[in-house]
Hints:
Shape: globular
CATH superfamily of the largest domain: HUPs
Largest sheet: 4 strands, parallel
Number of helices: 11
CATH architecture of the largest domain: 3-Layer(aba) Sandwich
Oligomer: single chain
Strand content: 5-15%
Amino acid sequence: MFNQLELISKEQFKKLTLLRDYIKSLKTACVAYSGGVDSALVASITFEQLREKACAITGISPALANHLLEEARMQAKWIGINHIEIETNELSDTSYSNNPKDRCFACKQELHQKTSFISEKLNYKNILDGVNFDDLSDYRPGIEASKKAGVLSPLALFKFSKKDIRDISKSLGFPWWDKPAQPCLSSRFPYGYNITKERLNMIEKGEAYIREMGIAEVRVRCQGASARIEIPEEDIQKFINNYKKEALINHFFKLGFKCVSLDLEGLISGKLNR
């Protein structure tokens, strides 16, 4: 069992106990694991309770940035859980690549076709994900696809907020407890703008360049041939003081962009939904 290293509230301790007991009762489980703080908590407790009857499954596609895949691998190794990687082909489905508002439904549908195959092959009876209680109040068409596939969401079931997840992860000594949210690369495009492997690659390399400047959280929004850089508001002055204009412009132009700008409003999750 992961030892509790820091205090959490009575309510959070109760939720953690319920989560542990619930997962233990499942006997076997696969976890749809992205490497984010939510699915990492579910994977950790699933391994803690089920050991060799647990596995974590990560879907690999061009929409998953390489550095996030590496982080997911390192975290799974730290946890100790059996980590299975599967290729997903959502880009071949126009319900995804045409980038409609319910794009995430097609993504999760593809993912859970693959996770269900692995689950059946291993004779594991349950598939879990990292959907939390806060997610239920947001527009998340992927949640509906997961429900239709019979996926269980224990964090939502026991009303874990994002704060609960971070606090509990920190208390259990998970090094990634404060890891920033990292939506898939396809979220950088406005709805209706086609998603291709080449465009995803442009986004990934553009964001990697900004991270190399010491800014951990960044989104490069792609609108036509324009790249709009979003970083946290508190990092904007640091960026302005330290960036090398010509080098940045040349890098983004080499990627295929024809215009690059900095969003002075800062990074706001879901901005393209406004």
